[in-house]
Amino acid sequence: MTSRNRPLIQVSDLSIGYDGHTLLRDMSFDVARGDVFVIMGGSGSGKSTLLRAMTGLVPPMSGTVKINGTNIWTADAAARHRISQNMGVLFQGGALFSSMTVGENVALPLRAFVHYSDAEIRDIVAMKLGLVGLSGFQDFYPSQLSGGMKKRAGLARALALDPEIVFFDEPSAGLDPVSSHQLDDLILEINRHLGTTIVIVSHELDSIFTVGTNSIYLDGAAHGIIARGNPRELLRNPPNETVRHFLTRGKK
């Protein structure tokens, strides 16, 4: 299989957990290039833990996570460094450093991974903030931003290195409906115009149906995946009662 035809992310026989307790077991799925891939499931099903395993933050109990064909958990330091440069992560709440300005937060990956001049970094920071609708906010502190603006500032930082993949952990959490809709639009714009592959942990139905092109559903009782496919297709043809109930919440 050529690199062009190979899935961008390949998760194979993955089991994850803590202190000897298995949370999720024997999971296998692929994320294609250009996907907006949603990890769904109820509270406590392991969605965020799976995301952390896929981004190199939580080691698996067994199995592999490959990005561009490289197993992130057995790769040498140089390969892990390259993989880290090729992914961005937007954590819940934006995870901005409160003692740093928005511009300094966005500049962090640039200063950590590349050797640009201060002027070049300022230009890139301004461009990324403009991309997320925060032009002119370089000198603001996170405490001066609304919740939606903090998420967008965090996204600007995640995009600083022009990554091929961006991971989102509950991007709509804590946002009002208008801000949530604006963030969904921004995710779609990044995916469509930049070709960025997106992986999202979410339980927000409006967001899932708006942005998702593929998905998996995690079930805590089953300790794994019980459904997969386009969320809108799963809504039309739910494979089981658990998924049907999740995707029709609030509907009569």
Gist of the model:
This protein has 252 residues and is of the alpha/beta class.
Describe the 3D structure:
By secondary structure, the chain is of the alpha/beta class. It is 37% helix and 24% strand. The protein has helices at residues 47-54, 77-85, 102-113, 118-131, 147-158, 177-194, 205-211, 231-236, 241-247; strands at residues 9-18, 21-31, 36-41, 62-67, 70-71, 87-90, 165-169, 197-201, 214-219, 224-228. The strands form 2 sheets. Strands 6-7-8-3-9-10 form a 6-stranded mixed beta sheet, with helices on both faces. It starts with 8 loop residues before the first strand and ends in a 5-residue tail after the last helix. The mean pLDDT is 92.
Beta-strand portion reads 15-25%
Helix content: 25-40%
Strand segment count: 10
Distance between the termini: 46 Å
Adjacency order of strands in the biggest sheet: 6-7-8-3-9-10
Q: Structural class, judged by helices and strands?
A: alpha/beta
Q: Give the overall shape, derived from the CA principal axes.
A: globular
| Average pLDDT level | 92
SSE string, helix = H, strand = E? EEEHEEHEHHHEHEHEEHH
Radius of gyration: 18 Å
Main sheet characteristics: 6 strands, mixed
Contiguous runs where pLDDT drops below 50 for at least 5 residues? none
Count of alpha/pi helices:
9
Q: Which features would summarize this protein structure in a list?
A:
252 residues; alpha/beta; 4-stranded antiparallel beta sheet; 24% strand
